Each structure stands twice: as C-alpha cells, then as structure tokens.
C-alpha cells in the first residue's frame, strides 16, 4: 500500500449494521492493510500463534455482546464490508487485552477552557502516538447514527471510533495506561466507543467508567461549556482529576495517587517528560491560546526522543516503538477539528466539521 498523503474522510450513517457496512467498504484498504500488518509482525508472523490469539480474544466476546450488542453488530458488518474475517476484526479490537506483553508509551492530550483561549472557545488537542505501520491505516469518520448524536472521530484499520467530538460539544481524547488489574470483560475499545454517544460531560464520565470493563484508559474529557477533566481507569478502579485554572493535560502514566498504587512498575520517564513540557507550555503561561498555538505545542521537540512530537527512531521497524501518526485539535464550540497526518512538525493541519 502506497503511503497516504492525507487522512481520508468517510461518511457513514444509519443503524449499526448500515454504519458498519459503510465503514468496512469505505475503509477496506485500511482494514485489510491493518489485518495483514498485525498478522505479520505479531509473534514473528507465526500463523498458529495468531490463531491462538484469536481464540484468546473470543473470551472477551460474551460480555461485550451482552453489554454492547449494537457495537458488535457494527463490527460484524465492518468485517463483511471490508471482506475480512470477523475473528481478525475482533482480535484487533481486543489488541490491548490479548497482546498484554506489547505496550507502547503513547499519546499526549491537553485541553483548555474558554477563559484561556483567545476566542473564548474550548479546545482539546491530541497527538496519536502508535506504531508507525498504522500511519497508512488512518481515516476520519463523520458519523450520523440513528437516535444518537452525530460525531467526528479519528480511527484506524478495523477499530471502533473512540477519539473525537460529537454534536453536543462533548470531546474525548485517550491515553493508554498500564495497570496490574485486568478482567475478562468488555474490551477497552468497545466500551470507549460509547463515550462519543454522551449528551453531557456527566454522561461521558459515566460511560468511561463503565463497570464491566477489561481494563482502562485515561479519558481526557471536555465540553463546550468549559468543563474539563481526566478520568483515569484501570479494570476495577477509577479516579477523576478536574481541570484547574482552565486547563488539563495527560500523557501515559497515572497522576492520581489512588491509581498509582495499581500501576505496573516500568519506565515512565518519557511520559513524565511530555507531561512536564505540556505543563510548561500551557499551564505556566498567561497568554490566550489559539488553535495555531496548540498546533505548535503538538509539534514541540523539547526532550527528544521523549518529546511531544514523537519521531520514529533510526533503524526501528514499522511495528516497533512509537511515533506520532496523527495530530488533531478540536474546537468544541464551533464543532470543528484540525487534523494532520504523521508527525505534526512536518504536517499540514486540515479543518473538518460536522
């Protein structure tokens, strides 16, 4: 597959099955590419191990279909529309559950409320850092579900949408976090999709802390009224960190002392470096911020290689390490998103709206 020059936009609408077919057909190349790439690099491309991973993923299916049958129907239709196996699609949506030994320190978030911005709007910015092979599997979804808020979301390959904003002015960005407690319950990606259906930030918090979850993320949430918070989750525990002085930032380690007791011991120096830099650029400045300021912040190279703008290391394989594969900034009042493909220092932010 030739390198893409910009992130494709796919419009879908209707009931879950209709949406799934439209997503599968519209993103067929990206979905097939992701299945091939992940099957190739996972456990050295051993087909028996890949099939074994699919068997492991099946354990998460009963709780997911019991709690979110509409998303399972959507995923089944995605597989049909893309002409790939549902078992492969399901495994990819259980990636962080099944490939528990595979971790990537990834993603930087920052949100600023209306009293900290030049135009009085609420802004939410996110760097999507992941394995570089997924750069070509990215696409933007403009979705009009039946009986739910319309939304705009970045996703890639066969994954359900879970980063973006909806027509109610609710925005969400996600960070992977690493905790010791894990359950055979609803996969992270599946229950995270529900956050984009929230009509209030209180509902978004409730959906991000869905009780029967396999594991957790950090959810950076914001709404058009200026409410900001981070919801740090593990499989069984969560804590809510409110925005202070009109801003909040998060990377890939727990900030709550309650959650830190559950964190897997590891190397979080890079995550701390990115968070401290975000605090310096956003929290400790008196200037009124704009979309352009946030674009510059997402492209910041201080503390390389542990910078906010994350570059692929020399001689690193496309499935090793992490790099920024996309950057986005949301204006929750205007319901607009500026998005750039690849590392933002070399990218071109393009505006999309609902």
Give a description of the structure.
- It is a single chain.
- With 354 residues, the protein is of the alpha+beta class.
- The protein folds into two domains: 9-98, no CATH class; 108-353, Penicillin V Acylase, Chain A (4-Layer Sandwich).
- It has helices spanning 16-26, 28-41, 47-58, 61-67, 69-82, 86-93, 95-98, 188-193, 201-208, 257-260, 269-283, 291-298, and strands at 9-14, 108-112, 123-130, 138-145, 151-156, 163-166, 170-176, 217-223, 228-233, 238-242, 247-250, 323-331, 336-341, 350-353.
- Helix 4 crosses helix 5 (69-82) and helix 5 packs across helix 6 (86-93).
- The longest helix has 15 residues, at 269-283.
First-to-last CA distance: 29 Å
Q: What is the CATH homologous superfamily assignment of the largest domain?
A: Penicillin V Acylase, Chain A
CATH topology description of the largest domain: Penicillin V Acylase, Chain A
Q: Please compute the radius of gyration using only Cα atoms.
A: 19 Å
Assign the CATH class of the largest domain: Alpha Beta
Total strands: the figure is 14
| CATH architecture descriptor of the largest domain | 4-Layer Sandwich
Q: Which percent bin holds the helix content?
A: 25-40%
Task: Report strand order across the widest sheet.
Answer: 1-4-5-6-7-8-9-10
The amount of beta strand, in percent, is: 15-25%
Overall geometry = globular
SS content category: alpha+beta
The total tally of domains equals: 2
Q: Indicate the mean pLDDT.
A: 94
The H-and-E topology, N to C, reads as EHHHHHHHEEEEEEHHEEEEHHHEEE
Number of helices: 12
| Poorly predicted segments | none
Q: What does the main sheet amount to? A: 8 strands, mixed
